[in-house]
Design goal:
Elements: E1 33-34, E2 39-41, E3 49-53, E4 75-82, E5 85-92, H1 96-104, H2 120-123, E6 138-142, E7 145-149, E8 152-153, E9 156-158, E10 165-168, E11 179-180, E12 184-185, E13 192-197, E14 204-209, E15 215-221, E16 235-236, E17 240-245, E18 248-250, H3 252-256, E19 262-264, E20 270-276, E21 283-287, E22 291-300, E23 306-313, E24 328-335, E25 342-348, E26 353-356, E27 368-373, E28 384-389, E29 394-398, E30 403-404, E31 408-411, E32 416-423, E33 430-436, E34 446-449, E35 460-464
Antiparallel strand pairs: 1-5, 2-34, 3-4, 3-35, 4-5, 6-7, 7-9, 8-11, 9-10, 12-13, 13-14, 14-15, 16-17, 17-20, 18-19, 20-21, 22-23, 23-24, 24-25, 26-27, 27-28, 28-29, 30-32, 31-32, 32-33, 33-34
The protein binds fe (ii) ion.
The site of fe (ii) ion has 8 residues, from strand 22.
Length: 465
């Protein structure tokens, strides 16, 4: 006799009490296609393209546990801008887990930290014992593919016309072992550089996809790595893949014993790997411990040093039990590969995140880094958009007074623009703001009213027409 083994299924998560399942983060279950969105102000006539953004968005109310931003199914949001008008559509990425849950009408897989997997009676033999696939962190277009990216797994390929799910993809083998969510595309060569961490040797790999979508370099181990570290993002220069190995270690033995799977080990310090893109030996630098989620950009200097702009946290909040809050600064580090010296300058200490530059300037000097951070330092104030001029050392800001997301640089035919989604925490309506890159502090040229709430977080990409 076959019975539903859901009897052992973990209990539902109370979404009303979970900070990342309620309010501006509450899941969006509607999928819509809406033309001619309402606009306050005027969308610049020279701006044509599409902003795609991914983010965690559980298809059904979660069971067991929910760890933001790793848990949650993927929803990709598309905002098309053309001839002064805007249109919006959104779709779940339909992994086998989402499809099975849609058939059942409720969540079947639990959170990634629970250790629970569904049985064959519940989901069939092929999916029994599997973990939920989570391509919910970023969305990338390269080599003819549109990819929804996971933290460390193979991505899902989407149909660019309607965002329907085409299936898992390995990018011709470059992502066979998986990829993190933040590969980097070199605008000069057209190559996409990918890295991934894993629980088996060689623990850390990098690979290269050519502009035609074919593998140029298959997954290649980074020499000198002897444990699995969480590394969320990378930077890229013309010469180097830049990897910061902050001491956040996966500890499977501790996890099996009921402890945390991630262990912060500040005594190890932070190691920096400059991996030459020509395949020559890795250059290592060693510094004090700190934590990085995201890089702005990096570039080579004529004297052989490497400049890296990133947001530096004192430690990974949520993954280390430290009384003082973790604080974030925008840091410019100049790396000296020959001497091993790391020269750091704090550019801004406004507790920011989501540093972004004009993606056309990746691997080159970028002049401006935009981020989300404390415009108003009052603890109850919402974050605004910050624009750091790296040449002049000045900072401009715009505070929409709502929960604002990652900024995106949008080049127009005549002028450049910055954009971001925001959601009003009082009425939970969402908007997309278009700011002039020349004067972002002046506030939006256009505020596009979204037809449905776009949940807060995470990463996106501008696809110019
Ligand atoms: Fe990220």
């Amino acid at each position: 006799m076959s019975v539903d083994s859901g009897i052992n299924r973990p209990a539902p998560v109370d979404i009303t009490r979970h900070a990342h399942l309620s309010g501006v983060f509450a899941p969006q279950r509607d999928e819509v296609w809406v033309d001619r969105l309402e606009v306050i102000g005027q969308i610049p006539a020279d701006l044509q393209g599409r902003y795609l953004r991914n983010g965690p968005n559980p298809r059904f109310d979660p069971i067991g546990s929910y760890v933001y931003p790793l848990d949650g199914d993927s929803m990709v949001h598309s905002l098309s801008i053309s001839e002064g008008e805007a249109a919006y559509t959104n779709r779940f990425v339909r992994t086998p887990m989402v499809l099975a849950e849609e058939a059942a009408g409720h969540a079947i897989w639990s959170g990634i930290t629970d250790g629970y997997t569904p049985s064959a009676e519940e989901v069939g033999s092929e999916l029994a014992g599997t973990m939920r696939e989570l391509p919910d962190i970023n969305v990338v277009r390269h080599g003819g593919r549109l990819l929804a990216m996971a933290e460390s797994d193979r991505p899902y390929r989407l149909d660019p016309t309607d965002l329907s799910t085409l299936g898992r993809d390995s990018c011709d083998g470059a992502m066979e072992v998986g990829s993190t969510a933040h590969p980097k595309i070199d605008p000069t060569t057209g190559e996409m550089i990918v890295f991934n961490y894993a629980f088996e040797r060689p623990y850390l790999t990098w690979s290269v996809v050519g502009p035609d979508g074919r593998t140029v370099r298959p997954p290649t181990g980074v020499d000198g790595v002897d444990s699995t570290l969480m590394i969320h993002d990378m930077a890229l220069t013309s010469r180097y893949v830049v990897l910061f190995l902050c001491p956040l270690v996966f500890d499977l033995a501790a996890a099996m014993a009921g402890g945390s799977i991630l262990d912060w080990r500040p005594d190890d310090g932070t190691r920096i790997a400059l991996v030459p893109r020509d395949g020559s030996p890795v250059r290592w630098l060693h510094g004090d411990p700190f934590w990085v989620w995201h890089f702005g950009n990096a570039f080579d200097n004529p004297d052989g040093t490497v400049t890296v702009d990133y947001v530096e946290w004192s430690y990974p909040g949520g993954f280390a039990e430290i009384a003082d809050p973790s604080v974030a600064s925008l840091v410019r580090a100049v790396l000296h590969p020959d001497s091993g010296r790391i020269a750091k300058t704090v550019v801004s200490d406004r507790n920011m995140e989501f540093p972004r530059v004009d993606d056309r300037l990746l691997t080159r000097d970028h002049h401006v880094v935009a981020s989300v951070g404390q415009v108003d330092r009052a603890p109850e104030a919402t974050d605004g958009l910050l624009f750091h001029d790296m040449d002049r050392g000045t900072e401009r800001s715009w505070d929409p007074g709502v929960a604002v997301g990652e900024p995106i640089h949008m080049p127009g035919d005549d002028h450049d623009y910055w954009g971001a989604y925001g959601t009003d925490p009082t009425d939970l309506t969402s908007a997309f703001y278009i700011l002039s890159a020349d004067d972002p502090a002046a506030g939006p040229l256009a505020t596009i009213r979204m037809p449905i709430r776009v949940p807060a977080g995470l990463h996106g990409v501008w696809l110019a027409d």
